[in-house]
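Example (one chain per record):
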Amino acid sequence: MNYFIGVDVGTTSTKAVLYDQNATVLDQFSQGYSLYRDASGMAEQNPTAIVAAVEKVIHDAAQKADLTNGKLLAVSFSSANQSVIMLDKNFNPLSRVITWADTRARDVANELKNSPAGQQIYAKTGTPIHPMSPLTKIMWLNKTQADKVAQTAYFGDIKSYLFHQFFNTFKVDVSIASCTGMMNVNTCDWDDQALELANVDRSQLPEIVNGTTQAIGLTAAQAKMGIPADTPFVYGAFDGALSNLGVGAIKQNTVAITIGTSAGVRVVTDHPVIDPQQRLFCYAVDKGLWVIGGPLNNGGDVYQWAVEHLVDASAVKNENIDPYTLANQVIEGVPAGAHGLLFHPFLGGERAPLWDANARGSFFGLSHIHTRADMLRSVMEGICMNIATVFQAVRDLVGNPASVTATGGFARAEVWRQMLADVLNCPVNIPNSFESGCLGAITMAMKSLGMIENYEIIKTLIGDISSYQPNQEAVNVYQNYLPLFQQVEGLLTPAYSTIAKLQQQSIH
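Predicted structure:
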Protein backbone atom coordinates (compact mmCIF):
# COMPACT_ATOMS: atom_id res chain seq x y z
CA MET A 1 0.00 0.00 0.00
CA ASN A 2 1.19 3.52 -0.83
CA TYR A 3 0.39 6.61 1.20
CA PHE A 4 -0.19 10.35 1.26
CA ILE A 5 0.02 12.66 4.27
CA GLY A 6 -2.06 15.82 4.26
CA VAL A 7 -0.90 18.46 6.75
CA ASP A 8 -3.07 21.37 7.91
CA VAL A 9 -1.16 24.07 9.83
CA GLY A 10 -3.83 25.91 11.80
CA THR A 11 -4.12 28.73 14.30
CA THR A 12 -3.93 26.66 17.48
CA SER A 13 -2.92 23.21 16.22
CA THR A 14 -1.46 21.30 13.29
CA LYS A 15 -3.23 18.22 11.98
CA ALA A 16 -1.95 15.43 9.76
CA VAL A 17 -4.22 12.94 8.01
CA LEU A 18 -2.78 9.68 6.68
CA TYR A 19 -4.41 8.47 3.46
CA ASP A 20 -3.87 5.47 1.25
CA GLN A 21 -3.25 6.02 -2.48
CA ASN A 22 -7.03 6.04 -3.09
CA ALA A 23 -7.51 8.91 -0.62
CA THR A 24 -9.12 6.73 2.03
CA VAL A 25 -8.51 8.09 5.54
CA LEU A 26 -6.41 5.68 7.58
CA ASP A 27 -5.72 7.80 10.67
CA GLN A 28 -5.22 11.37 11.84
CA PHE A 29 -2.96 13.10 14.31
CA SER A 30 -2.93 16.51 15.96
CA GLN A 31 -0.52 18.65 17.96
CA GLY A 32 -1.56 21.88 19.66
CA TYR A 33 0.33 25.08 20.47
CA SER A 34 -0.40 28.45 22.00
CA LEU A 35 -1.92 31.50 20.34
CA TYR A 36 -0.62 34.53 22.23
CA ARG A 37 -3.22 37.30 22.50
CA ASP A 38 -3.68 40.53 24.42
CA ALA A 39 -6.01 43.52 24.59
CA SER A 40 -4.12 45.41 21.87
CA GLY A 41 -5.30 42.94 19.24
CA MET A 42 -2.10 40.91 19.18
CA ALA A 43 -2.47 37.31 17.95
CA GLU A 44 0.89 35.58 17.54
CA GLN A 45 2.38 32.10 17.42
CA ASN A 46 5.81 30.71 18.28
CA PRO A 47 7.37 29.58 14.96
CA THR A 48 9.59 27.02 16.70
CA ALA A 49 6.53 25.41 18.28
CA ILE A 50 4.84 25.16 14.89
CA VAL A 51 7.86 23.54 13.25
CA ALA A 52 7.98 21.02 16.10
CA ALA A 53 4.25 20.32 15.77
CA VAL A 54 4.53 19.74 12.01
CA GLU A 55 7.48 17.41 12.51
CA LYS A 56 5.60 15.47 15.20
CA VAL A 57 2.35 14.90 13.28
CA ILE A 58 4.25 13.85 10.13
CA HIS A 59 6.37 11.51 12.27
CA ASP A 60 3.27 10.02 13.93
CA ALA A 61 1.53 9.53 10.58
CA ALA A 62 4.65 7.93 9.08
CA GLN A 63 4.90 5.56 12.05
CA LYS A 64 1.35 4.40 11.36
CA ALA A 65 2.16 3.73 7.70
CA ASP A 66 3.98 0.58 6.59
CA LEU A 67 6.88 2.21 4.74
CA THR A 68 8.77 -1.08 4.58
CA ASN A 69 6.31 -2.54 2.07
CA GLY A 70 4.76 0.69 0.86
CA LYS A 71 5.86 4.15 -0.23
CA LEU A 72 5.02 7.62 1.04
CA LEU A 73 4.10 9.25 -2.27
CA ALA A 74 3.97 12.85 -0.98
CA VAL A 75 3.31 15.17 1.94
CA SER A 76 1.07 18.09 0.97
CA PHE A 77 0.22 21.25 2.90
CA SER A 78 -2.74 23.35 3.87
CA SER A 79 -2.17 26.33 6.14
CA ALA A 80 -3.86 29.40 7.50
CA ASN A 81 -3.17 32.41 5.33
CA GLN A 82 -2.12 36.02 5.98
CA SER A 83 0.62 35.41 8.51
CA VAL A 84 3.83 37.47 8.68
CA ILE A 85 7.18 36.55 10.17
CA MET A 86 10.29 38.74 10.10
CA LEU A 87 13.52 36.87 9.32
CA ASP A 88 17.20 37.87 9.47
CA LYS A 89 19.70 37.20 6.67
CA ASN A 90 20.09 33.61 7.86
CA PHE A 91 16.31 33.10 7.93
CA ASN A 92 16.23 33.07 11.73
CA PRO A 93 13.02 34.55 13.21
CA LEU A 94 13.20 38.14 14.44
CA SER A 95 9.54 37.98 15.48
CA ARG A 96 6.87 35.51 16.36
CA VAL A 97 4.37 34.65 13.63
CA ILE A 98 1.86 37.50 13.36
CA THR A 99 -1.31 35.58 12.46
CA TRP A 100 -4.35 36.44 10.38
CA ALA A 101 -6.23 37.16 13.62
CA ASP A 102 -3.90 40.01 14.66
CA THR A 103 -5.72 43.37 14.40
CA ARG A 104 -3.05 45.83 15.56
CA ALA A 105 -2.75 47.27 12.05
CA ARG A 106 -6.35 48.55 12.14
CA ASP A 107 -5.48 52.27 12.11
CA VAL A 108 -3.07 51.80 9.20
CA ALA A 109 -5.67 49.69 7.39
CA ASN A 110 -8.43 52.27 7.89
CA GLU A 111 -6.21 55.05 6.55
CA LEU A 112 -5.23 53.02 3.49
CA LYS A 113 -8.77 51.77 2.87
CA ASN A 114 -10.09 55.35 2.69
CA SER A 115 -7.39 56.49 0.26
CA PRO A 116 -7.28 56.26 -3.54
CA ALA A 117 -4.25 53.97 -3.21
CA GLY A 118 -6.30 51.53 -1.12
CA GLN A 119 -8.94 51.22 -3.82
CA GLN A 120 -6.25 50.71 -6.47
CA ILE A 121 -4.51 48.03 -4.42
CA TYR A 122 -7.76 46.14 -3.83
CA ALA A 123 -8.63 46.25 -7.54
CA LYS A 124 -5.22 44.81 -8.46
CA THR A 125 -4.75 42.26 -5.67
CA GLY A 126 -8.28 41.17 -4.74
CA THR A 127 -7.30 41.41 -1.07
CA PRO A 128 -9.63 43.58 1.05
CA ILE A 129 -7.84 46.35 2.96
CA HIS A 130 -8.00 45.12 6.54
CA PRO A 131 -5.58 44.58 9.45
CA MET A 132 -5.45 40.86 8.59
CA SER A 133 -3.65 41.68 5.33
CA PRO A 134 0.15 41.17 5.39
CA LEU A 135 0.43 44.42 3.41
CA THR A 136 -1.11 46.45 6.24
CA LYS A 137 0.74 44.40 8.86
CA ILE A 138 4.09 45.30 7.28
CA MET A 139 3.04 48.95 6.92
CA TRP A 140 2.17 48.91 10.65
CA LEU A 141 5.51 47.28 11.52
CA ASN A 142 7.30 50.06 9.61
CA LYS A 143 5.56 52.63 11.83
CA THR A 144 5.79 50.84 15.18
CA GLN A 145 8.86 48.56 15.04
CA ALA A 146 11.20 50.40 12.67
CA ASP A 147 14.34 49.12 14.42
CA LYS A 148 13.31 45.50 14.00
CA VAL A 149 12.23 46.09 10.39
CA ALA A 150 15.69 47.56 9.70
CA GLN A 151 17.21 44.24 10.79
CA THR A 152 14.77 42.24 8.65
CA ALA A 153 16.25 40.66 5.54
CA TYR A 154 13.11 38.69 4.57
CA PHE A 155 9.38 38.72 5.20
CA GLY A 156 7.81 35.27 5.12
CA ASP A 157 4.66 33.45 6.15
CA ILE A 158 4.44 30.28 8.19
CA LYS A 159 4.48 27.97 5.16
CA SER A 160 7.46 29.58 3.41
CA TYR A 161 9.26 29.48 6.78
CA LEU A 162 8.46 25.78 7.23
CA PHE A 163 9.67 24.90 3.75
CA HIS A 164 12.87 26.86 4.33
CA GLN A 165 13.45 24.91 7.53
CA PHE A 166 12.99 21.65 5.67
CA PHE A 167 14.59 22.43 2.30
CA ASN A 168 16.61 25.68 2.55
CA THR A 169 14.45 27.22 -0.18
CA PHE A 170 12.39 30.41 0.13
CA LYS A 171 9.22 29.97 -1.91
CA VAL A 172 5.49 30.48 -1.41
CA ASP A 173 2.55 29.01 -3.27
CA VAL A 174 0.45 31.32 -5.43
CA SER A 175 -2.58 30.79 -3.17
CA ILE A 176 -0.86 32.10 -0.03
CA ALA A 177 0.83 34.88 -2.03
CA SER A 178 -2.50 36.07 -3.39
CA CYS A 179 -3.79 36.61 0.16
CA THR A 180 -1.03 39.06 1.07
CA GLY A 181 -2.41 42.18 -0.61
CA MET A 182 0.89 42.38 -2.48
CA MET A 183 0.33 39.98 -5.43
CA ASN A 184 -1.22 41.27 -8.64
CA VAL A 185 -4.02 38.88 -9.69
CA ASN A 186 -3.44 39.62 -13.37
CA THR A 187 0.30 38.88 -13.42
CA CYS A 188 0.53 36.48 -10.43
CA ASP A 189 3.65 38.38 -9.40
CA TRP A 190 4.41 40.86 -6.63
CA ASP A 191 2.79 44.24 -7.34
CA ASP A 192 5.14 47.25 -7.51
CA GLN A 193 2.68 49.71 -5.96
CA ALA A 194 1.96 47.41 -3.02
CA LEU A 195 5.67 46.79 -2.45
CA GLU A 196 6.28 50.54 -2.42
CA LEU A 197 3.55 51.03 0.20
CA ALA A 198 5.10 48.27 2.34
CA ASN A 199 8.61 49.62 1.73
CA VAL A 200 9.65 46.09 0.77
CA ASP A 201 11.90 44.95 -2.06
CA ARG A 202 10.74 41.90 -4.02
CA SER A 203 14.07 40.22 -3.12
CA GLN A 204 12.86 40.21 0.50
CA LEU A 205 9.80 38.12 -0.38
CA PRO A 206 9.59 34.44 -1.32
CA GLU A 207 9.45 33.32 -4.94
CA ILE A 208 5.85 32.65 -6.02
CA VAL A 209 5.27 29.08 -7.29
CA ASN A 210 2.27 26.96 -8.25
CA GLY A 211 0.59 24.98 -5.51
CA THR A 212 1.55 21.72 -7.22
CA THR A 213 5.26 22.61 -6.98
CA GLN A 214 7.35 20.01 -5.15
CA ALA A 215 10.30 20.42 -2.77
CA ILE A 216 12.59 17.39 -2.50
CA GLY A 217 15.69 16.77 -0.40
CA LEU A 218 14.92 17.19 3.27
CA THR A 219 17.50 18.72 5.59
CA ALA A 220 18.34 17.28 9.02
CA ALA A 221 14.66 17.59 9.95
CA GLN A 222 14.12 14.39 7.96
CA ALA A 223 15.61 12.32 10.76
CA LYS A 224 13.05 13.71 13.20
CA MET A 225 10.14 12.85 10.93
CA GLY A 226 11.22 9.31 10.08
CA ILE A 227 10.42 9.55 6.37
CA PRO A 228 12.63 9.07 3.28
CA ALA A 229 14.65 12.19 2.47
CA ASP A 230 13.47 12.12 -1.15
CA THR A 231 9.77 12.32 -0.22
CA PRO A 232 8.15 15.12 -2.27
CA PHE A 233 6.63 17.91 -0.20
CA VAL A 234 3.90 19.72 -2.18
CA TYR A 235 3.22 23.39 -1.37
CA GLY A 236 -0.56 23.15 -1.65
CA ALA A 237 -2.65 26.22 -0.83
CA PHE A 238 -4.32 28.10 2.01
CA ASP A 239 -6.90 26.25 4.08
CA GLY A 240 -10.01 27.99 2.74
CA ALA A 241 -9.14 27.32 -0.89
CA LEU A 242 -8.37 23.68 -0.12
CA SER A 243 -11.65 23.31 1.75
CA ASN A 244 -13.43 24.07 -1.52
CA LEU A 245 -11.40 21.41 -3.32
CA GLY A 246 -11.91 18.97 -0.47
CA VAL A 247 -15.71 19.11 -0.68
CA GLY A 248 -15.83 19.07 -4.47
CA ALA A 249 -16.98 22.71 -4.71
CA ILE A 250 -14.82 23.43 -7.75
CA LYS A 251 -17.42 24.89 -10.10
CA GLN A 252 -19.18 28.24 -10.04
CA ASN A 253 -22.56 26.61 -9.24
CA THR A 254 -21.50 25.26 -5.82
CA VAL A 255 -20.76 27.47 -2.83
CA ALA A 256 -18.68 26.05 0.02
CA ILE A 257 -19.30 27.26 3.55
CA THR A 258 -17.02 26.36 6.45
CA ILE A 259 -17.99 27.09 10.04
CA GLY A 260 -15.33 26.26 12.57
CA THR A 261 -13.99 28.75 15.09
CA SER A 262 -14.43 31.34 12.37
CA ALA A 263 -16.30 30.90 9.08
CA GLY A 264 -15.93 31.32 5.34
CA VAL A 265 -18.11 31.48 2.23
CA ARG A 266 -16.35 30.67 -1.07
CA VAL A 267 -16.96 29.78 -4.70
CA VAL A 268 -14.36 28.69 -7.28
CA THR A 269 -14.11 30.30 -10.73
CA ASP A 270 -11.71 29.97 -13.66
CA HIS A 271 -10.85 33.68 -13.72
CA PRO A 272 -10.36 36.50 -11.19
CA VAL A 273 -13.53 38.37 -10.14
CA ILE A 274 -13.13 41.65 -8.23
CA ASP A 275 -16.08 42.96 -6.16
CA PRO A 276 -16.68 46.64 -6.99
CA GLN A 277 -18.07 47.11 -3.45
CA GLN A 278 -14.93 45.61 -1.85
CA ARG A 279 -16.94 43.13 0.23
CA LEU A 280 -15.21 39.95 -0.99
CA PHE A 281 -11.74 38.59 -1.61
CA CYS A 282 -10.42 37.11 -4.84
CA TYR A 283 -7.58 34.65 -4.16
CA ALA A 284 -5.81 32.01 -6.23
CA VAL A 285 -6.38 28.33 -5.54
CA ASP A 286 -3.87 27.12 -8.11
CA LYS A 287 -2.91 28.00 -11.65
CA GLY A 288 -6.14 28.80 -13.54
CA LEU A 289 -8.40 28.49 -10.49
CA TRP A 290 -9.60 31.34 -8.27
CA VAL A 291 -11.71 31.44 -5.16
CA ILE A 292 -14.14 34.31 -4.55
CA GLY A 293 -15.67 34.81 -1.14
CA GLY A 294 -15.52 36.24 2.31
CA PRO A 295 -14.02 35.17 5.64
CA LEU A 296 -15.93 35.81 8.85
CA ASN A 297 -14.25 36.16 12.23
CA ASN A 298 -17.30 34.99 14.11
CA GLY A 299 -18.40 31.39 13.90
CA GLY A 300 -18.24 28.58 16.41
CA ASP A 301 -16.30 30.70 18.89
CA VAL A 302 -19.36 32.95 19.30
CA TYR A 303 -21.57 29.94 19.89
CA GLN A 304 -19.05 28.67 22.44
CA TRP A 305 -19.28 32.03 24.23
CA ALA A 306 -23.08 31.79 24.24
CA VAL A 307 -23.11 28.24 25.60
CA GLU A 308 -20.65 29.13 28.36
CA HIS A 309 -22.70 32.13 29.50
CA LEU A 310 -26.31 31.25 28.68
CA VAL A 311 -26.66 27.51 29.36
CA ASP A 312 -27.85 26.71 32.88
CA ALA A 313 -24.93 24.97 34.60
CA SER A 314 -27.25 23.27 37.11
CA ALA A 315 -29.30 21.77 34.26
CA VAL A 316 -26.12 20.40 32.68
CA LYS A 317 -25.18 18.82 36.01
CA ASN A 318 -28.65 17.49 36.82
CA GLU A 319 -29.17 15.91 33.39
CA ASN A 320 -25.56 14.75 33.14
CA ILE A 321 -25.34 16.04 29.58
CA ASP A 322 -22.79 17.91 27.47
CA PRO A 323 -23.63 21.66 27.53
CA TYR A 324 -23.55 21.91 23.72
CA THR A 325 -25.94 18.99 23.35
CA LEU A 326 -28.26 20.63 25.86
CA ALA A 327 -27.99 23.99 24.09
CA ASN A 328 -28.92 22.41 20.76
CA GLN A 329 -31.91 20.69 22.35
CA VAL A 330 -33.05 23.99 23.89
CA ILE A 331 -32.66 25.82 20.58
CA GLU A 332 -34.76 23.23 18.74
CA GLY A 333 -37.62 24.09 21.10
CA VAL A 334 -37.60 27.80 20.13
CA PRO A 335 -39.34 28.87 16.91
CA ALA A 336 -37.49 30.48 13.99
CA GLY A 337 -36.90 34.15 14.69
CA ALA A 338 -36.40 33.58 18.45
CA HIS A 339 -39.61 35.48 19.26
CA GLY A 340 -38.39 38.62 17.53
CA LEU A 341 -34.82 38.74 18.84
CA LEU A 342 -31.81 39.49 16.63
CA PHE A 343 -28.15 39.02 17.47
CA HIS A 344 -25.20 40.55 15.61
CA PRO A 345 -22.31 38.16 16.30
CA PHE A 346 -19.37 40.54 15.95
CA LEU A 347 -17.58 39.61 19.17
CA GLY A 348 -14.20 39.52 17.41
CA GLY A 349 -14.61 42.46 15.06
CA GLU A 350 -15.55 41.37 11.56
CA ARG A 351 -14.03 40.76 8.21
CA ALA A 352 -16.59 40.14 5.43
CA PRO A 353 -18.88 41.85 4.79
CA LEU A 354 -18.02 44.79 7.14
CA TRP A 355 -14.20 44.68 7.13
CA ASP A 356 -14.30 46.51 10.45
CA ALA A 357 -12.01 45.35 13.26
CA ASN A 358 -13.97 47.57 15.67
CA ALA A 359 -17.32 45.85 15.08
CA ARG A 360 -18.98 44.56 18.26
CA GLY A 361 -21.81 42.17 19.08
CA SER A 362 -25.31 43.16 20.15
CA PHE A 363 -28.81 41.87 20.86
CA PHE A 364 -31.61 43.84 19.19
CA GLY A 365 -35.24 43.59 20.21
CA LEU A 366 -34.60 42.27 23.71
CA SER A 367 -37.67 42.52 25.93
CA HIS A 368 -39.27 41.02 29.05
CA ILE A 369 -40.66 38.11 27.05
CA HIS A 370 -37.26 36.79 26.10
CA THR A 371 -35.52 33.92 27.86
CA ARG A 372 -32.03 32.49 27.75
CA ALA A 373 -33.39 29.93 25.28
CA ASP A 374 -34.42 32.75 22.92
CA MET A 375 -31.01 34.34 23.32
CA LEU A 376 -29.25 31.06 22.53
CA ARG A 377 -31.28 30.59 19.36
CA SER A 378 -30.77 34.20 18.28
CA VAL A 379 -27.00 33.77 18.65
CA MET A 380 -27.07 30.77 16.33
CA GLU A 381 -29.39 32.57 13.93
CA GLY A 382 -27.16 35.65 14.02
CA ILE A 383 -24.14 33.60 12.95
CA CYS A 384 -26.18 32.13 10.08
CA MET A 385 -27.61 35.52 9.06
CA ASN A 386 -24.13 37.01 9.01
CA ILE A 387 -23.06 34.16 6.73
CA ALA A 388 -26.14 34.88 4.61
CA THR A 389 -25.03 38.48 4.00
CA VAL A 390 -21.73 37.21 2.57
CA PHE A 391 -23.57 34.49 0.65
CA GLN A 392 -25.72 37.20 -0.96
CA ALA A 393 -22.63 39.18 -1.97
CA VAL A 394 -21.20 36.04 -3.62
CA ARG A 395 -24.49 35.52 -5.47
CA ASP A 396 -24.39 39.13 -6.65
CA LEU A 397 -21.02 38.49 -8.31
CA VAL A 398 -21.26 34.96 -9.70
CA GLY A 399 -25.00 34.13 -9.80
CA ASN A 400 -27.28 31.79 -7.88
CA PRO A 401 -25.69 28.48 -6.90
CA ALA A 402 -27.43 25.14 -7.33
CA SER A 403 -26.42 24.12 -3.82
CA VAL A 404 -24.24 24.81 -0.80
CA THR A 405 -21.73 22.34 0.60
CA ALA A 406 -21.03 22.99 4.28
CA THR A 407 -18.36 21.63 6.61
CA GLY A 408 -16.91 22.39 10.02
CA GLY A 409 -17.64 21.49 13.60
CA PHE A 410 -21.11 23.03 13.39
CA ALA A 411 -22.11 20.45 10.78
CA ARG A 412 -22.29 17.74 13.42
CA ALA A 413 -25.48 19.30 14.86
CA GLU A 414 -28.79 18.71 13.06
CA VAL A 415 -30.26 22.00 14.24
CA TRP A 416 -27.36 23.94 12.67
CA ARG A 417 -27.69 22.11 9.36
CA GLN A 418 -31.39 22.78 8.95
CA MET A 419 -31.13 26.38 10.17
CA LEU A 420 -28.42 27.15 7.59
CA ALA A 421 -30.59 25.77 4.78
CA ASP A 422 -33.54 27.82 6.02
CA VAL A 423 -31.64 31.10 6.45
CA LEU A 424 -29.91 30.76 3.07
CA ASN A 425 -33.06 29.43 1.36
CA CYS A 426 -30.84 26.99 -0.50
CA PRO A 427 -30.22 23.22 -0.29
CA VAL A 428 -27.28 22.40 1.98
CA ASN A 429 -25.14 19.28 1.53
CA ILE A 430 -22.99 17.99 4.39
CA PRO A 431 -20.19 15.54 3.51
CA ASN A 432 -19.80 12.86 6.14
CA SER A 433 -16.02 13.35 5.98
CA PHE A 434 -15.03 16.69 7.52
CA GLU A 435 -11.29 16.81 6.78
CA SER A 436 -11.76 18.77 3.57
CA GLY A 437 -8.56 20.85 3.84
CA CYS A 438 -6.24 17.84 4.05
CA LEU A 439 -8.18 16.02 1.31
CA GLY A 440 -7.81 19.08 -0.92
CA ALA A 441 -4.09 19.14 -0.16
CA ILE A 442 -3.47 15.54 -1.17
CA THR A 443 -5.56 16.05 -4.32
CA MET A 444 -3.05 18.77 -5.27
CA ALA A 445 -0.30 16.23 -4.57
CA MET A 446 -1.99 13.74 -6.92
CA LYS A 447 -2.03 16.40 -9.64
CA SER A 448 1.59 17.28 -8.89
CA LEU A 449 2.60 13.62 -9.31
CA GLY A 450 0.67 13.30 -12.59
CA MET A 451 -1.84 10.83 -11.11
CA ILE A 452 -4.78 13.04 -12.14
CA GLU A 453 -5.24 15.69 -14.83
CA ASN A 454 -7.64 17.96 -12.94
CA TYR A 455 -9.56 18.22 -9.67
CA GLU A 456 -12.80 16.66 -10.90
CA ILE A 457 -11.78 13.38 -9.26
CA ILE A 458 -12.40 14.94 -5.86
CA LYS A 459 -16.14 14.34 -6.28
CA THR A 460 -15.53 10.59 -6.29
CA LEU A 461 -13.43 10.77 -3.12
CA ILE A 462 -15.81 12.64 -0.84
CA GLY A 463 -18.03 9.72 0.13
CA ASP A 464 -21.55 9.98 1.49
CA ILE A 465 -23.32 13.29 2.01
CA SER A 466 -26.43 14.33 3.91
CA SER A 467 -28.73 16.83 2.20
CA TYR A 468 -31.04 19.38 3.85
CA GLN A 469 -33.83 21.19 2.02
CA PRO A 470 -35.14 24.59 3.17
CA ASN A 471 -38.28 24.48 5.31
CA GLN A 472 -40.59 27.01 3.67
CA GLU A 473 -42.26 28.12 6.90
CA ALA A 474 -38.89 28.96 8.48
CA VAL A 475 -37.66 30.49 5.20
CA ASN A 476 -40.58 32.94 5.27
CA VAL A 477 -39.65 34.02 8.81
CA TYR A 478 -35.99 34.56 7.96
CA GLN A 479 -36.82 36.45 4.77
CA ASN A 480 -38.52 39.03 7.01
CA TYR A 481 -35.70 39.16 9.56
CA LEU A 482 -32.68 39.28 7.23
CA PRO A 483 -33.36 42.82 5.89
CA LEU A 484 -33.79 44.02 9.49
CA PHE A 485 -30.54 42.30 10.49
CA GLN A 486 -28.74 44.25 7.75
CA GLN A 487 -30.54 47.52 8.54
CA VAL A 488 -29.54 47.41 12.20
CA GLU A 489 -25.98 46.46 11.18
CA GLY A 490 -25.83 49.59 9.03
CA LEU A 491 -27.19 51.79 11.81
CA LEU A 492 -24.69 50.51 14.37
CA THR A 493 -21.61 50.59 12.13
CA PRO A 494 -20.75 54.29 12.74
CA ALA A 495 -20.72 53.66 16.51
CA TYR A 496 -18.38 50.66 16.50
CA SER A 497 -15.16 52.67 16.61
CA THR A 498 -16.43 54.71 19.57
CA ILE A 499 -17.40 51.72 21.68
CA ALA A 500 -14.14 49.96 20.78
CA LYS A 501 -12.13 52.96 22.03
CA LEU A 502 -14.16 53.12 25.24
CA GLN A 503 -13.58 49.40 25.81
CA GLN A 504 -9.83 49.83 25.34
CA GLN A 505 -9.81 52.71 27.84
CA SER A 506 -11.71 50.63 30.37
CA ILE A 507 -9.17 47.79 30.01
CA HIS A 508 -6.20 50.09 30.50
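Caption: The two ends are 59 Å apart (CA to CA).
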